[in-house]
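Q: I have two molecules that I believe assemble together. Could you output C-alpha cells for the complex as a whole instead of separate predictions?
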Amino acid sequence: DGGITQSPKYLFRKEGQNVTLSCEQNLNHDAMYWYRQDPGQGLRLIYYSQIVNDFQKGDIAEGYSVSREKKESFPLTVTSAQKNPTAFYLCASSIIFAGNQPQHFGDGTRLSIL
Amino acid sequence: GESVGLHLPTLSVQEGDNSIINCAYSNSASDYFIWYKQESGKGPQFIIDIRSNMDKRQGQRVTVLLNKTVKHLSLQIAATQPGDSAVYFCAENMGYGNKLVFGAGTILRVKS
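A: Yes, here they are, computed for all two components at once.
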C-alpha cells in the first residue's frame, strides 16, 4: 500500500544532541512537509519542500534543519539549538505544492528529552 | 496513547446520533478547506475537503458545510459510531501554494 512512513515512533534526545527523524513516502508526491504538534494546539509548519533539492522555512524553523535529496525522503534534524524539542512531529506530503491539494500524513514521531 | 487533545473543546454524543463539529476560520481569502480526524497516537487522516466555490459537499456519512459570510465551516457525521471517537480539526489554505493553517481541534466522544 502507498503511504508515508515515519520512524522511529518514539525518540529520546539528550542535552546537546542532534537527532534525525525519518520520513519516507511511496506516493510519488512532489511536495513534503514537517509539522510540530503540541497538546491543545494546531499543527505548526516547520519546513516544506516543493520538489527535490528544494526546501523552505515554515513558521517555526529555528532549531531545525532538513534535506530533500530524493523525492521519496524528507528527513528532519532537531538540533541542539531547539530548546524545547519535546513534541509530536508529523510528516506530510501532497501531489504538488498547489492549492486544493490535500496533505496526507504519516503516524508521527514522539520526541522527548532525557 | 499520546494525548493531543488537552484543553480542547469536547463534543459528547450518543452512538447512532448525528454529530456536528464546528470550525471558525481566520482568513476571508482562504479558498480551500479540509477536515481531518486524528486518533490517539496517530497522524491526521483526511476526511473530506471543500473549495470556496461550494457551500456543501457530501461524502460517506459525512457532510461539510461552508459559510463564507461568517467564515464558518462545519462537519456533520451521520449515525455516529464508537470508531468515530477522535480529535477532529479543520485546515484552511490561505492561497499561498499549499500552505495550510490548522485549527486546534475538537474532541468527539461517542457514548455507547
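A: One point stands out. The radius of gyration of chain A is 13 Å.
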